[in-house]
Each structure stands twice: as structure tokens, then as C-alpha cells.
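Q: Hi! First time doing this. I have a protein sequence and I read that you can turn it into a structure. Is that right? Here it is:
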Amino acid sequence: MSLEKVKKTPLLSARVFIATYPGMMRIFQQYDVGYFDLIVADESHRSIYNIYGDIFKYFDALEVGLTATPVEMVSRSTCQLFGCDYKKPTANYPLELAISDGNLVPYKVVSYTTQFLRDGIKSEKLTEEQIAELEDQGIDPNELDFEASQIDEAVKNKDTNRHILRNLMEKGLRDIDGQLPGKSIIFARNIAHAELLAELFAELYPQLGGNFCRVIHSKYERAEELIDDFKSTDESSVRIAISVDMLDTGIDVPEVVNLVFAKPIKSKVKFWQMIGRGTRLCPNLYGDGQDKSHFLIFDHWGNFEYFDEDPDEDDVSQSKSLCQRVFETRLALAETLLQRAEMDAFEEVIDLIYEDICALDMNTISVRDNWQDVEVCKDLDRLKTFAPQTKTRLHETIAPLMQWRNVMGLGEALRFDNDMAQLQLMLFTNKSKIDVAKQALIIKIAKLQMHLNEVRAQADAINEIQQDVYWQDLTFFKLEESRKALRSIIHLRKKDTYEPRPEVFIDVTEETDGIQVQERKAKIVSVDYEIFRREVEKTLTPLFETDAVLQKIRSGEPVTEAELEQLNALVHVQNPNVELNTLKEFFPESTETLDKILRTIVGMDRAAIEQAFTDFVQQVHTHLNSKQQRFITLLKNHLVRFGTIQVEQLYEAPFTQIHDGGLDGVFSEAQADVIAQFVQQFGVQLGNRNQNNQQPRD
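A: Yes, that's right. Below is the predicted 3D structure, encoded as C-alpha cells:
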């Protein structure tokens, strides 16, 4: 049952409930704390934020959090929210393993930057031709001084974005026909940047029509329709989606083969979520039996270099709410007044503190969790005593609870309360600051709209506080009277209007010698190995029938170092990007020779395998029944495909499909021992691949 449909009455008949976080927040207190036995929270990295965390604090149930990108900071930890140690989840299935297991596809990264993207746009670095272009556009080149971080934010250069689009169209992975790029997502900096990219695409490729490349953002009414169109496999569907945050997470389009990072990314969580948009398997993407093997990432902002340095996630502690700031100022004021024996003023402030505490809603889960402290502090006599223990409780427990007060529509009044309390505090701690602090307050009051009856009713108070004499003989109670008179009308003033800074659009040709393109490693071993393995396989496969060294390797025959060097030289001619000796770097623990490692990629020759098994059967004089023959056929196929096998694999799938016991279930003990001994000759001990920091899976 979907909890989104629950209005007022809790459902009691259903056994499984489905809800969004916001939906559950609206109704969770309608249910008893022990109502649910199990709570499964998907995308649980979101739940570390206070508002959703209340759901998990409220219910007494077994809680399971699922996320590909846990947030782990000192002040916010997904693992700790679910009762685990910091950065230590109960179970972890990293991207490294998911790719190695074949459950996700690997990716290639191409860094593509221009001069402007690296260095910004500065007048002193422009060429004569670029200066002339700007002058033709009516722009003074001397006014241009933009850092790289401001590109596509404060200033947008059309030619820079043409390079981004042309690179995708010319270098991106193609569709089944090899004619056009496959499904692609461009991650833009903002809506204006996205719209500029779409406009430039239409200029560059008008023949592709208006639906080939579309901006997808929540501000557009048809955003969900466009997402469905992008997910569609119809030939006329959206092929390139330009996203502004909307497709960064949560979208599942297996056909995506190109990701374009056209913006800088600083959040590690968002970075891996964005990469996850391309990792989905897609069978038969390029025809029957031709699955999606990998996807391509064009990084135009050096994001991979940034995260190579493993920067700490910004750990910004939650800012204090306005109500908490007012409450803490009043606590400081009360403490100062008591110290100076200003008892009448002290009791006045204590009454305000008492009112703040009584305004806390006991139905709020965080307040309810601290109900004992709240009830203790509602004792007015205890508050007036203001003992050290009470002050500690007020600062450490009650003040943070002020964020849960319902102050909708009271923001201006509370800010005014805080301004006045600060001035009252300065009266007793630092009078010299009052002259500066009062200026902002007087300016605010001077903007009250006197034509309004509510404002005019407080004309005397408004006039008084703007006079110099008011400030010459200032007292706590004079400020307090003004606060009470004006707090309810302070919002009725003329608001300052700010003209948004106009966006700067220019069209300056990027220098071609300033473009830097580099294919770089993902720094995740299973990703880099899988990409390299496919490159080696693609290069060697056409040589199976003609190269004698490769034929020896696939037949399981030994080869010399000289023969391997000969093969490596031939490979270099076919593909300069492949250096066979690189394979050994992936397996530093292995003592196997390069030819055997190669065999795990190119597999074994079927004829050689058939001959080896024929000789084996004749030597042991054994007769195979139908099940045993099927088992041996599986074994042959495995060796042809993978070039190696370990004895323990004979007790795993697919061999257990013939019998649950694997080898021992199909053969007698004596036969199994002989087969195990025979199989050992095909083993290649690769050991563990060189490990990097494993990244989350999504």
C-alpha cells in the first residue's frame, strides 16, 4: 500500500507500506513507534539530514539503509545513523567488485580541456584575432577578467561550448548503425548554460531536428515527459539530454554510452552518482549478442584529477536556526544582567526565555526525545535561579531544539528581536559598538511604509528611535519598549530590490593549440583492467589464424621471451595504445609468465582442447555417461573462452547446473581425483589485482 494516499487515518490492514521521505514525514507520527517490524530506506544517504533523520529516530524497528553513495563526515554519517561504526557499513558491494563480477560496465575517461576552461578569459592573454572578434561584437576586451571557475557561470563563451558539443558528436560512442552518438547526457552548470548548449547544437546540426538534443530541467512543464522520451528506444526519441541537476541521480537509462561533464563537481557523492548513470548493463545494444561493453566520459573540467587527490567532503556543520540564535543571545544577555545585578531586566529576559521554551511543540520527535529537559526548563522559578546546571541544559539541549519551533511568517520579527537583544547586550558589554550597530537598525526602520495604518499606529515609537536623543540616554527598557512596539510591523517596510547581474555572452574562437585531449585511467583497477583487456582482445583476435606465437599460446604450448617480444612488436603495429607487458602490472602478486596471463584473455584453441581431452580419456580408459559428457563439454567451453580454470570452480556454476555437488556429484571419487589432477595443468594463478581505493556502486 502506498502511504502517499494516506490523508488522515492510518491504514491498519496493509502489511507492506511504500512511501517517499517527504510523504512519510507528513504522517509517521500517526503510527505507534513499534508499528513496523522492518524499515528499508533506499537512497539512505539523504536521510542524514535532520528532517528525515526523525523518521528513523521515531520508530523502534530493524532499519536497513541502502545507498550507493553514503555520506561520511564527522558531523553527518549515514553509517552511524543506522547504528554502524563510522565509514563501516554492515555490507559493502563496491564498484570495483560489481564491474569485476560483470554486474556493471566499465568506463573510459577522456580529459578534454580548452585554454579558457583551464586559464579563464583575461584581456592580457587574448590574441590579436580574439581581441578583434570581441570588438566586432561591441565588447571592450579590457573589461574581461574571468577566472576559469567563472566560465559558463559569470561568462559564457559560445565557441568553448561548440568544442564540447563537437567533441561529443565526433568522438562519442556511436549507435548501432555507427552513424550518430548513442544515448548521451551532458551535465551543464545552470539553466542558461544548458539552453546555450541546446541553441548551439541546433545551429551546428540543424539536420537532426529539434528533438535530438533537449534540455531537461524541472522548470520546464514537460520535464517528466522528456525523461520518458529520453528513456525510449524509438529512433526519434531524445538522443542527447542536457541536464541541470535533474539527471545527476536516480535516472536509469541502460542505453546511455556517453557522459559529458561540462561543469565542475565538488561533491564526491554527486560525482559517483553521475558516473552511475552510465554503468548499467544493456544487452544487445549493438545487435543480437552484442552487449554494451563500456561507456565513455568526457571530462571538460578536470573533475577526475580533482577527486584523484581524494579531497575531504565539505563538512559544514549545520548552521544555527534563527530561533536558536535569538535564544542564545537572550541567554547571554540574561547571564550578563544577572552578573551585574540588573534584576528587573534579568527577570524580563527570563520571561522571554520561558516563552520560547513553552513555544516548543512536544509533538515534534526531537523535542519529545528531550522531553525531560524541556519540562525541567519550563519551571520558571528554576529559570530565575539560573544555576550553572540550568545554564548548561539551556545551552546544550534546549537551544538546538529551537529549530523545531513553528515560526512561519515571523522571520522578520525574530530578526528584529535578535538585533534588539544584541544592542541590549552591547549596553553592558561594549557600548562603543552601539554607534555602528544602530545604523543598520535605523535604516531598516526608516523604510517602514507610513501610509499603512498598522505602521502609522506606531508613529511615535518609529519617530523616537530615529532621534539622536533616544540613543544618548539608552537603557535596556527603552530598547525593550521599542522592540515590543515595532516587531509586529517591521516586515511592512520597502524591501530592497537587487538587479541581477546581467549574464555575459561572448563568442571568441578558442585557439586549437590550446586544446588538450588525454585518455586517462579511471584509477579503479577493475575498470582500467576491463577496458585494457577488451582492447587487447580486440587487437589479438584478428591474428588468431596467422600469428604462430599466438597460436602456441592458445594451444597451451610454452613460448620464449623472444617470441613474446615479437608478438608485442606486432601488436604495437596493429594498435599503438596496447603494451602487452602492462598486463603484468595488474597482477603484481602473480608469478605467471606473460603468455599465460595472455591466455586468460584470448582463451584456448578449441581444436587443441579437444585433442587434449581425447588423449586424456584414452589414457585413463574411462567411459563417460551422458551427464559426464555434458560436464566435460562445459569444461571445454570454459577453457576455450577463459583459457584457465581452477579446481574449485568445478564446484560452482555453471557446473552445479548438472549436479548440485559439481564435480563430485557427477563423477566417482576416483574419477573426480583424476579429472582434478588433469585440470590443474590449465590453472593460471593470477592472484589479486593491484588494488586502489574502491568506490561505491550505483
